[in-house]
Write a structure and sequence with these properties.
about 10% strand; two-stranded parallel ribbon; 4 strands; mainly alpha; globular
């Protein structure tokens, strides 16, 4: 993922929500990789989520989608025609993205 993000620097956008999720997951699963996680974040264009995105996330299908996944998907959908796809390794978010016609990329 780190090399993929570096190869696509300036083309990949995420919300600040990813910052928390990635750092928490890295701290829990591989704390020795914190520097690498920060390098991935540095290669991305980060954005803050406005209130309407939170509203949209609250109404997205499917109802079983987890809250943070709904926020990620709502933020992606806000990009409209500029959205090429989303990066996820989560099966539930992959299914929800497909429901909304969003392509999923899962670089290794």
């Amino acid at each position: 993922m780190a090399s993929w993000a570096a190869d696509h620097e300036g083309q990949v956008v995420s919300s600040d929500l990813l910052r928390t999720e990635l750092l928490r997951a890295t701290r829990r699963e591989a704390p020795e990789q914190m520097q690498r996680a920060r390098a991935v974040l540095d290669a991305l264009m980060m954005t803050s989520l406005p209130v309407p995105t939170f509203e949209r996330a609250g109404t997205l299908e499917p109802d079983q989608m987890r809250n943070l996944d709904a926020l990620h998907l709502a933020a992606a959908l806000e990009l409209g025609d500029e959205l090429d796809g989303i990066i996820t390794y989560d099966d539930r978010l992959t299914e929800a993205a497909a429901l909304h016609g969003v392509e999923v990329v899962a670089p290794r």
